[in-house]
Known about the structure:
The protein has 15 helices and two strands. It has helices spanning 9-21, 24-27, 29-32, 37-41, 52-64, 67-71, 73-108, 116-125, 127-160, 180-200, 203-229, 240-244, 261-266, 284-292, 311-340, and strands at 233-236, 253-256. The chain crosses the membrane at residues 50-74, 86-112, 133-160, 180-202, 209-230, 281-300, 320-338.
Amino acid sequence: xxxxxxxxNYRLSASVNESESRSPLANQAPEKLPGSPRHRSSPQRxxxxxxxxxxxxxxxxxxxxxxxxxxxxGFVVGQAGLYQGIxxxxxxxxxxxxxxxxxxxxxxxxxxxxxxxxxMISRAxxxxxxxxxxxxxxxxxxxxxxxxxxxxxxxxxxxxxxPEDPSLTPTAHQILPSGYWWSxxxxxxxxxxxxxxxxxxxxxxxxxxxxxxxxxxxxxIMIFISFFVVRxxxxxxxxxxxxxxxxxxxxxxxxxxGFKLETLLGNLYGGYSVDYTTGNMMTFATVxxxxxxxxxxxxxxxxxxxxxxxxxxxxxxGTITAVIFTFIxxxxxxxxxxxxxxxx
Length: 344
């Protein structure tokens, strides 16, 4: 039995029986044959180079800082209010903390090899559970990739796309065609680029991870600074009737008020209303479903366990650090949004 032996009793018993049934000659074979291919190839293995920060903290932060932090913080605070928004984050992070603690317990209870979550689940529960849960984990990654692609398309069209509402005049830099089929085309192109990266190899992403991390941190810093340097001004909104076909039930302007106590008091409590674009009535559950997407991605560091110097040391510390950092960031962004932007 070794540190990599599965943890279930029946798996332990099987491993013990296997080890006892092996002949002593087979166990001594590597010592008797020092010139065997296995012996010669072991020095040629590449060392694991990724540390806690580059191997776990950076990938986990990049996965958890999803489209929610850039596009949906205002939606959460505007619908649920600051109190319920913070409560949603507490509930969401309590859920993922249970998963993080389970990952920490498994990763520190024995040696880890390549395979990430599948390896840890298979080692703890056996390959039957590992295979089924691994399939669900794969499908979840597929849905998460679609969410991130659509978020990128929305951000691009919101900045460079021609407004779909004919009442709005496009600016000089808004030149990209907009619409449902155009969004589908842009998303397909981005998904194909991601497929190309996967086909070429993950080392391309590994080399650019730190640069992407610096860009994300720079953008977050600019967001925090903008709350203090941008002066109060009205924001022009597309007509709500253009999206939900319900008629002009909402005004077409909103206000960025800057830091005002009146604005904060108006955003403390929930004010669920009809969604601006879909025409559906929002509730605690629907807003929480949108917000929870920003709390996923905690397995990004565990998935590259084969590339870490010390997975049992790096995964727990790196994952917990990333979770705490993202939680503080989300709470600060929610408070700043509640202090400076009216509910509309």
